[in-house]
Amino acid sequence: MEEFGYCKNCNEYVPCTIRNKVHIEWYKGEKICLRYRTGICKHCDSEVATDSEYYIKKEQYKSEIDKRLKGIITLSQTNEILRKYNIGKEALSIVAGFGKVTVKRYYEGVMPCSANSEILMSFLNDESFFLDCVEKHKSKLTNLAYRKICKRYHELSSIRDSKIYQIANYILTHVGKITPTTLECLLFFSSGVNYALNRKQLIPDECQVSLNGPIYPIIHNMYNKPDYILLDNGIASQSGWLMSKISLDERRAIDLTLRTFGIYSPKILEMVSRNQLLYITNLSIDQEAAVEAYYASHNLNTEENITNYIFEVIKNNQ
Q1: pTM listed for this prediction
Q2: DSSP one-letter string for 61-130
Q3: pLDDT for 184-208, tens place per residue?
Q4: Which of 229, 223, 183, 179 is nearest to 203 (CA)?
Q5: What is the mean pLDDT of residues 114-141?
Q6: Cα–Cα dist 215/208, whole Å
Q7: CA gyration radius for the chain?
Q8: How far apart are alpha carbons 61 and 194 in whole angstroms?
Q9: Which of 1 and 38 is assigned the larger pLDDT?
Q10: Which residues fall within 8 angstroms of residue 239, CB to CB, at 6 or more apart?
């Protein structure tokens, strides 16, 4: 791709070839990795600066590091609050009791004071405190903003008390738009991988067998849509209610599942799940014990082992 940029060596604007580069540096003990675009002068092969936002992005990274070191809420955490509660910057400022443009100013480079940071951090981790503040400042919110917040709070509440809902939401936020059948397959595979890694049950809810693979009735009813309709991306948050029932070891098992099984098409996942269920249902032990035995016997506890296993299943079913 050819663009024009100012070359100091030639002292003029010149045609240049664009290349993508990575700059790595350390700042206060933390690694900054920035991808940027640069140009190579077609006259003298000198590097020509073409990415005008490079230095802005680097300063933003440094600012985020400074905030973390001072215990001040970062922009990435503030983004998590906005997504979690489906709320805008102005509405968040109102709910927190700030001036209407306070949160917006944080995105323009203003450092939050400690008191404001503490309130926002509480919103991130404590949904009940957030709702109390919503009701306290309700009169200052628009009807639309208030309805959106209440709808999202109801969704959060439904996830709070259900481990399988939390796992399903975690999967949706990490693999993007998928079909209902794919979601249930990934839940089933996560359960098996957790047995292989942690020797414990991951999902306490019932799993049924169907022609298309595993069915979790509670998830099947919640996402009762045809398979040509993709599910949404879930509620992206690692804080508060959304991860309260999932341990760190269980999260590692789910992540391993998504890095392996999660990269395949719905048809492949259905085929692999049917292959497993055919074997499991023929064992003369209960289903959970059969799943544990299957994953243990196939050593499905590493990325390499799982990848090789999937290749073998695909080869044997061609």
Answers
A1: 0.77
A2: HHHHHHHHHHTPPPHHHHHHHHHHHT--HHHHHHHHTS-TTHHHHHHTTPPPPHHHHHHHHHHHH-HHHH
A3: 999 999 999 999 999 999 999 989 8
A4: 183
A5: 96
A6: 5
A7: 25
A8: 35
A9: 38
A10: 80, 84, 124, 125
What is the C-alpha to C-alpha distance for residues 160 and 133, in angstroms, rounded to an integer? 19
Q: Which H or E run contains 138?
A: none
Can you list the pairs that 96-103 forms with residues at least 24 positions away whose Cβ atoms lie under 8 Å?
96/120, 96/123, 96/133, 97/133, 97/136, 97/137, 103/78
Please give the biggest Cα pair distance in the chain. Answer: 81
**Residue 314 CA to chain centroid, in angstroms?**
28
- Return the SS3 of 284: coil
Q: What angle do CA 275, 253, 190 make, to 5 degrees?
A: 35
Amino acid at 170: Y
**Gap between the Cα atoms of 91 and 111, Å rounded:** 19
Residue identified by tokens 């544990």 is: 292
Asked whether 55 and 38 are in contact (CB, 8 A), the reply is no
What are the E-state strand segments in the chain?
A: 2-7, 12-27, 30-41, 47-49, 208-210, 213-215
End-to-end CA, the chain: 42
- The closest alpha carbon to 273, from 223, 318, 309, belongs to 309
Three-state DSSP state, 156: helix
Quick one: angle between helices 89-96 and 143-160, nearest 10?
A: 80
Residues 6+ apart with CB under 8 A from 232: 172, 177
Say if CB 18 and CB 37 are below 8 A apart: yes
Which residue is listed with tokens 């990415």?
Answer: 51
pLDDT at 281 over 90: no
